Amino acid sequence: MSATSNSLDLPVQPSRPHSPAQAWTQRLPSPPRINVPPPLLDSHGLPDLAIPEGSVDFEANGFTNAAFLKRVTHGNVVSHNNMIEWKYEQRHQAQQILPFLFLGPVAAARDVAFLQKSGITMVLAVRNTLSAHARLLGSKAAVNLGIQLQNVDVAGNQELIAAFPAAIDLINNHLSGMYQLQFQHNSSLVDQTGGSSPGKVLVFCESGNERSAALVIAYIMAMYSMDLIKAIQLVQSQRFAVSIDDATRNYLETYSYILQAKRDVIQQRSNALAFHANIGLNSHLDKPITSKRTLENTYDEDTDMGNDMGNDDDERFEKRNGLAPFQD
C-alpha cells in the first residue's frame, strides 16, 4: 500500500527483518467499482432487454407463488427509451418497469389519479426505520382507495439484502392472489389477456431512486435470473433518475451471489432426485441397512495392520527442530 495522509508513522528499523518496508495506511480496502454501460439498442431504437418466452425457469429460483410470471412477462418489456426521452419532471412520477411493477417516489403513492389510472392494487414502501417510527412515509391515498399497503423497513442500505426475500414474496403473493382471483371469476379472460396482469404493484421510497430502485433490481435478478448489470440497465432505461451508489451496487452484487448459490443448491437437489429415480432407488429400500463401523472397531482394525506402520510419524518428527518466525 502506498503512503497517504492517514498513514501510520511506524518506526522503520532496517536492522530487523520484520520491520515494515513502507508506511501502512488506515484506509480500508475498497472493492472494484461496478460500472454500468448503456444498454444495446434493438432495431426499433429501444434497449435490447427482451425476456424470451420460456427462457426462465421460475420454479428453480426458489420463490413461491411465481407461476403467474410465465404468462405476464415475455418479449421486450421495455416500451420506451426513457434514457433519451427523459424529462426532469418525470422524476416526480412513477414509471412502469415490468407489466405489473411500477417504481416511483412517495409523491406517486399519494397521487390518486395515477393510482386509479394505472390500476395499482398494492403499494410497497421501502422505508428507513426512523421514517417508519415518525410515520413520514405512507400513502393515505392508497388506504382511502382500498389499495393494499405494505412496508419494508430497514435501518440502512446494508440491511436490504436481508429484506429482499420477504419483500419479493410480498410482491409475488399479492400478484399471484390477484391472478388466481381473476381466474376463478373468468378463466377465459385470463387466456385472452395473455401478457397482462390483473394486479399491479407500485414500489416507492422518498425519491424513488435509491432503496425502492434497489428492491426492484433485486426482484428482477431473483425472478428472471438476470445479472446485476442487465437488471440495472432495465430499471434505468425506464426511470433514468435512478441513482444506485457504489455501496448499494456492492450489496446487490452480493445478493446476486446468494441467488446463484440458492439456484445451484436447488439444481443439485433436482439432479440428485433424477439420479435416484433413474437407478431405481426405491427397489433397494427393502435391503437391510448395515451399520457403520464404530470408532473402536476402526481403531482396532488400524492397529492390526502392524506395529511398524504406527511409528512412522514419530520417526519423521523426532529429529526436527523448531524455527522462530523472526530473528532479532
Describe the structure.
With about 325 residues, the protein is α/β, with parallel strands linked by helices. The protein contains 13 helices and seven strands. The strands form two sheets. The chain has a five-stranded mixed β-sheet. A hairpin with a 2-residue loop joins β3 and β4. α9 runs parallel beside α11. The relative contact order is 0.13.
Q: Any key phrases for this structure?
A:
single chain; 328 residues; alpha/beta; 5-stranded mixed sheet; two-stranded antiparallel sheet; 13 helices; 41% helix; 10% strand
Would you spell out the secondary-structure blueprint of this structure?
Layout lengths: L49 E2 L17 H4 L2 E2 L5 H4 L9 E4 L2 E5 H4 L2 H7 L3 E7 H6 L5 H5 L3 E7 L5 H26 L1 H7 L7 E5 L5 H14 L3 H11 L7 H33 L16 H9 L8 H6 L11
Parallel strand pairs: 4-7, 5-6, 5-7
Antiparallel strand pairs: 1-2, 3-4
Helix pairs in contact: 7-8, 7-9, 9-10, 9-11
Please summarize what this structure is.
The protein has 328 residues and is α/β, with parallel strands linked by helices.
